[in-house]
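Think of the structure tokens as a kind of shorthand, similar to the way a musician reads notation: each symbol stands for something richer, in this case the local conformation of the backbone. In the example below we present two proteins back to back. Begin with the first one, reading the sequence and then the tokens, and try to describe in your own words what changes along the chain.
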Amino acid sequence: MAQTTEARPSTPQPSRTPRFHRAWSVAAVTFVTVIGAAGFASLPGLLIEPLHEEFAWSRGTIGFAVSVNLALYGLTAPFAAALMDRFGIRRVVAAALSVIALGSLLTVWMTAAWQLVLFWGILVGLGSGSMALAFAATVTNRWFAARRGLVTGILTAAGASGQLVFLPLLSWLVEDHGWRPAAVTVALTALAVVPFVWLLLRDHPADVGLAPYGGEYAPKPAPVTGAARRAVTVLFKAARTGPFWLLAGAFAICGASTNGLIKTHFVPAAHDHGMPVTAAAGLLAVIGVFDVAGTIASGWLTDRFSPRRLLAVYYALRGVSLLFLPMLLAPSVQPPMLFFVVFYGLDWVATVPPTIALCREHYGDDSAIVFGWVLASHQVGAAAVAFAGGVARDVFGSYDVVWYAAGALCAAAALMSLVIRRPGTPEGRPLTA
């Protein structure tokens, strides 16, 4: 498909390279934006028990709404990346935050399960999908030619930072004041971030007459039309290459073993063993602390070591930790559980920087959209386990079988990562080859 790439006449001329590059300011705004948006991602695991008690909905029903949210989060991401190319980052992200606020606020008045699916599953899912990691990948690709792994790690860690900020607050609200004030807090937080995005974020370095950090100046390309068509076209091209399926499969397991499992079901699972909700949510927040360190470190390592080997190590270690988790759940927090929190937290989204690096390595200029599709598989995996975990709890009375299955899947993801070929080999040709 032909794309228009001529420069806009109004593009400012390049200026002298500043001592402090504007790219770092844009990265900071992106970081704060993702933190502010992370509130909505922190809430589902806290809602399962309150909604079950108030409305008598089964955990499988509530898990289904969460699974719709997670699936749409992933399926929207590649189209959001293309929409950012067409309409600009600011417009897409500001609109997404507004939709998130609307969906979260409407849940306050819901009375039926289908409304939970509509408001939280569909509206918040669509909005959060446009705020997905493709946002961080797009900002990194446009504004940075150097230090991309480090910046990717920092921006990815923003979600964990948001979890750290919001989980204790939201769990306290749910425990002491009910789930509705927590939903309102999420809505207001999403709205509060919109002015920062609109006033401070810029779509491209050429908008302010700069070259990307560590790169050479290039005029801003004209908007790319046919955003949806381009997203689908890129998918069909990428689907003809082996690395895409290996990356997508491994990342689906990544989503199943993080967002779908721990973020959704850890708090109710710990509560099943007698642990207070606030204590369990506090452990998730601590996971977020070490997630920040682990993800930034992973970005640093991705700039220096093979991303394939890094992914294999990350998935293998995560699988081992999940196999031990059923033995660590107890009414109170014991030292072995703290060890799990630290160990698992360092590995939570450490997989993102090497996965983005491999997408960039294989798919070049289309890497952000390709990563959007890989992220879609991540969220489909998360959605499957969010639903299956709730059903398993209803059927077996515990989550043990889910922890063991997730651990085994992580071993498979480690093997898939190791067999990804390098670009130029028969099964690892670049997308444009």
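Once you have a description of the first chain, move to the second and do the same.
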Amino acid sequence: MFTFHQMKHIFEILDKMRCLRKRSAVSFLGVLVIFLLFMNLYMEDTYVLERDKQLLRETSSHQLNPERYVHKFKDLSNFSGVINVTYRYLAVTPLQRKRYLTIGLSSVKRKKGNYLLETIKSIFEQSSYEELKEISVVVSLSDFNSSWREAMIQEITKKFAHHVIAGRLMVIHAPEEYYPTLDGLKRNYNDPEDRVKFRSKQNVDYAFLLNFCANTSDYYLMLEDDVRCSKNFLSAIRKVITSLEGTYWVTLEFSKLGYIGKLYHSHDLPRLAHFLLMFYQEMPCDWLMPYFRTLLAQKNVIRFKPSLFQHMGYYSSYKGFDNKLKDDDFEEESLDIPDNPPAKLYTNMNVFENYDASKAYSGADEYFWGKPPTTGNIFLIVFENPIIISKIKVTTGTVDRQNEILHHGVLDVGEEAMASKIGKQCVTYLRLGAFKNGNFEMADVNQKVPFNIHCIRIHVTKTQKEWLIIRSISIWTS
């Protein structure tokens, strides 16, 4: 694995590569990844596998092609170890057991306003007693001003002493001597020097926070220090994770703003920490994140609605500038997020490009899109196991394409799925009702259906000339 001094040496070498500045950010980042991996090949690092060394030899003379090499990036074991940092424990009670979710916050002194205490308060107040058993909150006071840190730790321990004692709240600090140089950095995007220093330090702040949290839980959630939480956000996140069981993902997004509400597997945190340190001076952290996701083979953003976290600050931590951005998808109550149990989806409609059937069921900000359906076309959901359903909601069309709805269709439910040419499907169905204005919604389904449901079928009853968007299919179980 890279030591701090090796990393620092590499950054100094990269600073001399002036010609690379003329390239675009995307191509530059690709070349940079290859260069760093190539350099590591010649370091006597016992953690680098022989097959990875061969890969580096092959790629050293080529532009990085994410689709070709992305699966190898996941296997590079020299990215999987923690960074050697000796943290200062400002308020910590050792964890008695691994939790389900760790929530990370990094905070620095602001010229205007301070929202950290309100953010911590919101996390705990919006969680039930049972949810509190499954979370830990790690706050990194990342400012080098010791007087500010001392004042903040007094405030935190005064207001949240019982959470510290219970091991739900830990406050740490990474000393300045572990940071790489923050002066004389490259001024990408023509940012002023102090702005470059601020965003570069923030990348390192987050890297050290991620590094600390690597083994504290199964999942990790990144928040900023000026955030309000939706009620029972943990239960909503757990629902989403359960619905994605068996599918591959790197980052799930529960807010569309900044570095708020981004969820990771904890086993990815060491690599993410190394990644932020590698490119700490290149661009802001929220611009770097898509590259990390892509390198680990998640091509598309997976963002869920409603958003579970809202930006509440009015002043930025950078120079106290105004920052009144709000997430218009945020909802205070999050418990109405559907369960969407694991299922297979089929359709005999003509699918447009990659807008396949599964995208209507994922819960993410995406949809199914098909060419004009004809009489008899179906859209079928077959659950892995029969379930009891309390509510079904299907929405078609979008705000931009309001006429691409299902104009004529019905929804049926079936029992006892059996094997067929297209996979499992039910033989007998019970009709629940017709679509109205492109939508179908029914509550108390379990009181109207006398069996456990194995299939849901959307049936087109009349050919239409308009294309069809199925924006979302939501299932609530009893």
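Compare your description with these statements about the second chain. The first helix runs from residue 4 to 15.
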